[in-house]
Batch of 2 targets.
Target 1
Amino acid sequence: MSQSQETLSNLLQETRRFAPPADLAESANVKADAYAEAADRPGFWARQAERLSWSKPWDEVLDWSNPPFAKWFVGGELNVAYNCVDRHVEAGNGGKVAFHWEGEPGDARTLTYADLQREVSKAANALLELGVRKGDRVAIYLPMIPELPISMLACARIGATHSVVFGGFSADALRTRIDDAQAKIVITSDGGYRRGKASALKSTVDEAVADTPSIEHVLVVRRTGQEIAAHERDVWWHDIVERQSDEHAPEPVDAEHPLYILYTSGTTGKPKGILHTTGGYLTQTAYTHYAVFDLKPDTDVYWCSADIGWVTGHSYIVYGPLANGATSVMYEGTPDTPHQGRWWEIIAKYKVSLFYTAPTAIRTFMKWGDDIPAEHDLSSLRVIGSVGEPINPEAYVWYREHIGASRAPVVDTWWQTETGSIMISPLPGVTEGKPGAAMRPLPGIAADVVDDQGTPVPNGGGGFLVVKEPWPSMLRTIWGDDERYVKTYWSRFEGLYFAGDGAKKDDDGDIWLLGRVDDVMLVSGHNISTTEVESALVSHPKVAEAAVVGATDPLTGQAIVSFVIPRGSAGGDVEGDDFLKELRDHVAKTLGPIAKPRQIMIVPELPKTRSGKIMRRLLRDVAENRSIGDVSTLADSTVMDLISEKLPSAKSED
Ligand code: ATP
Ligand code: MG
């Protein structure tokens, strides 16, 4: 294939390798033979489904007779809350801790599995009293407090479908999600603690539900004690839930019963209501949590730092870990409250052994400095994970060294709201890790990288990431819009699920994610990924974070424009021409002259979604001098003003 025809250039060469520690490899839950054992995919997933307790066995593992509408474990019945809570109590583990919950102000709560069983049962009875029935939708708009997983499990217990909306979203965002799902009640709190302050939630709900005819009640948890406006539809959690019986018989539902709707984070545009169902979803979240984190439920303490408002929190704070009977940490607040070592303090306090976070957090810690984690005892950590964006090799190596003590394997896990669970990831006891690579599809998953004809690219080639066979935790549709489901995910390539991401296979056939294909830059006939140029910039010792976009250019078609945040420790004149030239040369040296940015702007912050992903489409607006597009899913909308102010000083040369 000639260079000008290649789908996506493969520029970055990375030679560092990290083998699993011998003891971990020896005792790993999942060993190398798992890949061969999974050759019969339905048979493999049927064995994994045996991890769960079914009240009625399934007749057929997979019905794929009407693609792309899959049915897994057809005819089977189970209850998710029973699987996540009751069965552990019945097995004699009622006294085991399910959650060590840590509030931002320093308060803490411990919930055992027996506590959880009582709390979830009471909440389920309260929902029933409020008129919620099997199949109804419940919106949940809560901070990271125990009532959030309790509410989700209470819904699952009675067969109601939850729709968790991230507690930082606006009234407008909440309203459109409530309307889209036609939710009957919304569960919220007076407020929550973030950055040392009590921030209000109930007032946002009041604004949202002023105009949502489907909502009958607002169920309010008291968290901060702040003043709230009272409405007739309001019910206090402590009034209604506390007086319920702490017994409730979980209702078995069909394997394909809707468990939840969750809207994607909206990096690329209008959020989509992704529908997940019951049996297949719980099977794959449980299996992947067991395999990718090597969970030993009797000895490990697991912490996923995501917000439950994102899919990572659904699958890897609530459903996967609880299905596996794990002991988890849950934290309410921000990483810098009251100081920048708060997370490491929590890891030391609970002796966390398995930790899961996002590249955006890792890069922030790099920016804050190595000395902060060094002050804490992190020696309990044995597997550390990353999710949400491609992890730049430099960030991976920093994470491994400064958090994982150069011992704990880093698992870079690729997946999406749509996939429900991890799809591509190293196995910590098997894989020789490469910094920046998600490596290989997990056992039971058929993913590949194809060219624009849908043909697999050879090793060394780049293209589109696709999934070739249905998987148990796949989305079933976009809520209320089957047509958009088919169009969005299944029409780019015949018979293949297209995820929207670019990727490459290295010479060993291992997979590297290269960012979204919508963001790919076409420079002088070469398709260049944003990820590779960003990683090259981040590999410069003075750079903490970088985002790059392609801007229209009369000479090259598109030209690479970069936005860079220097490290706190950088020193010197980081705005001067010499430094900018040094960075541009550094990229040219790392990736080749074709990838040299036309322009580099030093900025104080980057526009990110509330889930921490860089929003490149807004930077493209800046780079092309357009007015800035929709910023409603941005974590901090003032960031764009800061960046625009920088524009006149933008540097460009040769
Ligand atoms: P929207 O689809 O509305 O734009 P979103 O894609 O940001 O929102 P999510 O489902 O939370 O919403 O994110 C999934 C995306 O995150 C993936 O498609 C991929 O681009 C990126 N991603 C997640 N994990 C990884 C990873 N380990 N490596 C590379 N990219 C990742
Ligand atoms: Mg997406």
Target 2
Amino acid sequence: MRTPLLAGNWKLNCLQKEATELASALAAGCTGLAGREVMVAPTYTSIAAVREALAGSGIGLGGQDLYWESDGAYTGEVSAEMLVDAGCSHVIIGHSERRQYFGETDQTVANKTRAAVEAGLVPVVCVGETLEEREGGKTLDVIRRQVEGGLAGLPPAGHETLVVAYEPVWAIGTGKTATTEQAEQVHAEIRALLATVTSAGASAGTRILYGGSVKPGNVDELMACPNVDGALVGGASLKADDFLRIVHFKETAS
Ligand code: PGA
């Protein structure tokens, strides 16, 4: 009932030429793909080139961030409407790097999520604890605060489209992946929380992605967890072969 979503977060990487080559390889490798969705989020400056390279492939295009006002004197920002205008269907919100380096808070995540939904974008809202928080036994408290705070005021239209990404900060770009038990425990908790934020029905249909050093070698076992409905992939999404292997994860891990 939940179609797996495999999403590539390209972060601050790829000039237009590299982005176009990567997108073209993904488009070729996803021909005839059924039963799963794919999305990539390039930098703003590569969105147009990637859109062209992905044309007709069925691969979705996402922004890596947005601002919640639709226009005005906000130098450097990009609105939800602008992402839609550029061809985006999705947008990543509240990534831990934005929280860590750019002052993102649960309040700004809530503002951005609302704006994304109102513009018709699928919001991919990221949550996750730091190593210190995990070691201090605070993981579930942090997740609860981020889910409840970041989804406060989510318009009803977003109940069906919302995607949540659980990305333990200590697993991002470190090569350390959460164990399947760790991922499943937090994913199940997020789904229970979502039932109170949206509804039990909507929460059962919400895709919860795992992110943090997802690779060809661990995607199958992660995807075998009942509450893991996809992956948000950083480093491995920059290599076409690796990301295509992730997209073609095997339904039953051996
Ligand atoms: P990683 O990044 O796959 O390189 O760990 C994941 C992310 O930040 O979304």
